[in-house]
C-alpha cells in the first residue's frame, strides 16, 4: 500500500468533491507560532477520533477523518479511512467517489475500474461514478456502455452538462453530426460557463466548415480571456477562412499571453511564406519559432524555403540540413536540399 501512494500528487484538484484544505482555528491560518499550530492540529485529531468512537458504525466520522488526512498530505491514511467508511456503510457514495478519484489521479486504472464497478453496484445513484465509468468506456471505444452510464446519470440529474458533452463527443466520433451538435449545444445551455463545451463545439463546427464556429471560440475567450487554447483555435479558424490579417493579430495576441509559444511564431511565418510571399518576414518568424523551440524541424525547413526564395541557397541548404539532422526521415527536406544543391 505504501508504494501505491508514494507518487500521489496532492496538489491537483479533485474531480469528485474537493478534498478541501481545512483551516482549523485562527492560529493555524496565520497568526500564532508552531506550538499553537501543533495544539490546534492535535485538537482536531482528537475531535475526529472522538467522533469515530461515538459512532463507529456510521460512515460520516471516517469520511471526515479521511478528508482531514488528505488535506494533511496523507493519501494512504485517507484511502484507508474511506475504506472504513464503506465497511460501516457500503452504500456511502462519497467514500467510493473519493477512492475512485484518488486511484484515477494516480493512473492506477485497473484498480480504479474495479472500484468504479463496486461504486455503481453499491451506490447506483452516484453520478460521479457513472460519469467516470462512461469516460473509461469511451476510451475503450465501448460507446454503448458509455451511453448506458451517461443516460443513467442524466436520469438521476438532468443538469449534468458534462454528460451531454460526452454524449456529443461520442456522436461526433460515430459521424452523427446532428446529434453531436445537439448534445454539445445542450451542454453549454445547461452550463453557460462550460469552457470546454464551447471549445468542442467550435472545433466540431470548424471541421464541418461552418462559420458559426467563430462565435463559439469567441464565447470561450470571453469565459477565459487569457486562454492560449481558445485564442489559438480562433487564429487557426481565421487562417483557414483566409482572414489572414486577423489571424496574424490573434497569433500576436497569443505571444503576448505566452511569449514562449513557438507555434504562434511558426504560423505567422507560414502565412507570410505561403500567402503573402513576404519571404523576409517569413524567415524572421520562423527564426522566432526556432528560438522558442530549437528542435522545431518544420521551422528549419520552412525557413529554408524562405531563404531559397530570397536567393540565399547556402542558408537554405544549412536549414534543410538541420531539419534532417533533427528528423532524418524528413523526406520533403531531403528533396529540397537536393534541389538546392543542384541549383548551386
Average pLDDT taken over every residue: 90
- Please identify which CATH superfamily of the domain at 285-344 we are dealing with: Tetratricopeptide repeat domain
The largest pleated sheet is described as:
none
Task: Tell the overall outline.
Answer: elongated
CATH topology of the domain at 285-344: Serine Threonine Protein Phosphatase 5, Tetratricopeptide repeat
The helix content, as a percent range, equals over 70%
CATH architecture of the domain at 285-344: Alpha Horseshoe
- Rounded Rg: 27 Å
Question: Which structural class do the helices and strands define?
Answer: mainly alpha
Give the DSSP E fraction (strand runs of 2 or more residues).
under 5%
CATH class of the domain at 285-344: Mainly Alpha
Q: Number of DSSP helices?
A: 19
Please give the structural blueprint:
Layout: H1 25-29, H2 34-54, H3 59-71, H4 75-88, H5 93-105, H6 109-122, H7 127-139, H8 143-156, H9 161-173, H10 177-190, H11 195-207, H12 213-223, H13 228-240, H14 244-257, H15 262-275, H16 279-292, H17 297-309, H18 313-326, H19 331-343
Please, could you describe this protein's structure?
The protein has helices spanning 25-29, 34-54, 59-71, 75-88, 93-105, 109-122, 127-139, 143-156, 161-173, 177-190, 195-207, 213-223, 228-240, 244-257, 262-275, 279-292, 297-309, 313-326, 331-343. The chain is mostly helical and 344 residues long. The model is unreliable at 9-31 (pLDDT under 50).
Task: Summarize this structure as a short list of keywords or feature phrases.
mainly alpha, 344 residues, Serine Threonine Protein Phosphatase 5, Tetratricopeptide repeat
Amino acid at each position: 500500500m505504501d508504494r501505491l501512494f508514494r507518487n500521489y500528487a496532492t496538489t491537483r484538484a479533485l474531480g469528485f468533491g474537493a478534498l478541501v484544505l481545512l483551516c482549523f482555528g485562527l492560529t493555524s491560518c496565520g497568526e500564532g507560532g508552531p506550538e499553537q499550530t501543533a495544539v490546534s492540529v492535535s485538537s482536531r485529531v482528537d475531535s475526529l477520533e472522538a467522533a469515530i468512537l461515538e459512532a463507529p458504525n456510521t460512515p460520516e466520522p471516517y469520511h471526515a477523518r479521511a478528508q482531514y488526512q488528505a488535506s494533511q498530505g496523507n493519501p494512504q491514511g485517507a484511502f484507508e479511512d474511506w475504506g472504513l467508511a464503506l465497511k460501516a456503510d457500503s452504500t456511502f457514495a462519497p467514500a467510493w467517489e473519493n477512492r475512485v478519484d484518488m486511484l484515477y489521479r494516480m493512473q492506477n486504472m485497473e484498480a480504479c475500474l474495479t472500484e468504479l464497478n463496486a461504486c455503481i453496484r453499491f451506490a447506483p445513484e452516484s453520478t460521479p461514478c457513472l460519469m467516470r465509468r462512461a469516460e473509461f468506456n469511451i476510451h475503450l471505444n465501448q460507446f454503448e456502455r458509455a451511453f448506458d452510464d451517461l443516460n443513467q446519470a442524466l436520469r438521476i440529474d438532468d443538469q449534468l452538462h458534462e454528460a451531454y458533452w460526452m454524449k456529443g463527443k461520442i456522436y461526433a466520433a460515430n459521424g452523427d453530426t446532428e446529434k453531436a451538435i445537439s448534445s454539445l449545444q445542450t451542454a453549454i445551455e445547461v452550463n453557460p460557463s462550460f469552457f470546454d463545451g464551447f471549445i468542442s463545439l467550435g472545433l466540431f463546427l470548424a471541421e464541418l466548415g461552418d462559420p458559426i464556429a467563430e462565435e463559439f471560440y469567441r464565447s470561450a475567450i470571453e469565459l477565459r480571456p487569457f486562454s492560449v487554447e481558445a485564442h489559438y483555435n480562433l487564429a487557426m479558424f481565421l487562417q483557414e477562412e483566409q482572414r489572414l490579417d486577423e489571424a496574424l493579430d490573434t497569433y500576436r495576441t497569443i505571444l503576448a499571453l505566452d511569449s514562449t509559444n513557438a507555434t504562434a511564431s511558426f504560423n505567422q511565418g507560414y502565412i507570410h511564406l505561403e500567402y503573402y510571399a513576404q519571404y523576409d518576414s517569413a524567415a524572421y518568424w520562423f527564426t522566432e519559432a526556432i528560438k522558442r523551440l530549437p528542435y522545431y524541424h518544420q521551422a528549419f525547413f520552412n525557413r529554408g524555403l524562405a531563404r531559397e526564395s530570397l536567393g540565399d541557397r547556402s542558408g537554405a541548404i544549412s536549414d534543410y540540413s538541420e531539419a534532417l539532422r533533427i528528423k532524418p526521415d524528413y523526406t520533403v527536406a531531403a528533396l529540397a536540399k537536393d534541389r538546392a544543391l543542384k541549383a548551386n
